Each structure stands twice: as C-alpha cells, then as structure tokens.
C-alpha cells in the first residue's frame, strides 16, 4: 500500500509523492518521474510491481502538476527555466530516501519523456546513482538537453532505454542516439514497433514492466 507524502525542495516548492515503503528501510529505492501532462498516478501499476519485487518506491508529481506546488495545470505556462528547475524536485525525492537511511548507491531513477530527461540529468550529475531507466527521452524537452548529459555517464553506471517505435519517431531516434553515445558497461535498449510514448508503453507492452524489474534486481538485489 502507498501513502501520500509531502516534500519541500531547496527552492521552497511543495512536492507531493506516492510512497510505497518496505519494512526494511534501507532496501533499494526507485524514484519515478512522470511525463507531461501526466501525474504520479501514471506509475501506479509499475510502482506496485516494483514494491512487490523488493524495492521502496516514490512516484512524485513534478512542480506544476497534480498535487504539487503550482498544480494541477501550472506547467502549461512554465518557461524553459521553470521546467529546468524541476531537477530540484528530483533532488528532494532522492534526499527523502537518504534521510531514511537508504545509501545513495542503492537509489535508482526512472522517468518518462521530460521525466526521462530529468532522470538522465540527475544520474549524469551524481555518479552514485547506479541505474536509470529512460522511457521516450528527447534530445531537448523544454531546454533539458540530453546529449551533454549522456557523455557524463560513467562506465559503471547502468542505463535502460525504451521507446515506442514508429508512432514516436522523435523519442525513438533520440533513444538510439543516446544508447550509441553511452559508455556504460551495462546499457540496454528496447525499441517497440508501435507502443506509444512514455508510460503508455506499459499498456501496449505489459511485459516491459517485468523486464525492467528483473534488470534492476540484477543490479541491486
């Protein structure tokens, strides 16, 4: 079962999250970052499966979305700078787990669309983050540019990319380009034929959930 938590970012924005705990407070943890115009609830089925597999999970509403500050529709008027400030939301979610005693090296990130770009940004800036999962990343979503970030990923950091294929050509081309640029020793890419964008891929390709969970388990459990 999940419970709602409230976080405060370092720039004083209130962030809401669905937290899926485990009895073992230092168990591996996953932060989930939604796409636009979605919310934390878009991760619910995946979050439950992750939790059942032995991971603590925190799915947050990015600023301007859902129950977070500026939500539910403030993102519609955001400037690129305001979107880029969402990296502070990611930091607050990671700090939540650290405050509970989870080691930095046991925290992973998964993001969809702009959430994928934010996930890659945070992983590229923190070598302690050993795994990141990117659904439908873009070369540039609202000024969050992934090409410089992917070059900073270290060989011992793992990255899993997924894209929907023909009906999401931009993200598919981006995912392949980022995959080719990665120096990671453990990198995977899954390109589907016609599976849509971001977390909508779970509806078309439900086996993707277990594939990613098994990949994360090999790294953390």
Q: Determine and state the CATH class.
A: Alpha Beta
Number of domains: 1
Please, what is the CATH homologous superfamily?
Alpha/Beta hydrolase fold, catalytic domain
Q: What percent of residues adopt helix (DSSP H or I)? A: 25-40%
Low-confidence stretches: none
The Rg value, from CA coordinates, equals 16 Å
Give the strand content. 15-25%
Taking the sheet with the most strands, its summary is: 8 strands, mixed
Helix count, DSSP H or I runs of 4 or more residues: 8
Q: How would you characterize the overall build of this protein?
A:
The protein has 221 residues and is α/β, with parallel strands linked by helices. It has one domain (3-220): Alpha/Beta hydrolase fold, catalytic domain (Rossmann fold, 3-Layer(aba) Sandwich). It is 33% helix and 22% strand. The chain has eight helices and ten strands. The protein has helices spanning 44-52, 80-84, 87-99, 114-125, 147-150, 169-181, 201-204, 207-220; strands spanning 3-8, 14-20, 29-33, 56-60, 107-112, 131-135, 140-141, 144-145, 158-163, 187-191. It has an eight-stranded mixed sheet with strand order 1-2-4-3-5-6-9-10, sandwiched between helices. Strands 7-8 form a two-stranded antiparallel sheet. The chain starts with a strand and ends with a helix. The model has no long low-confidence stretch (mean pLDDT 98).
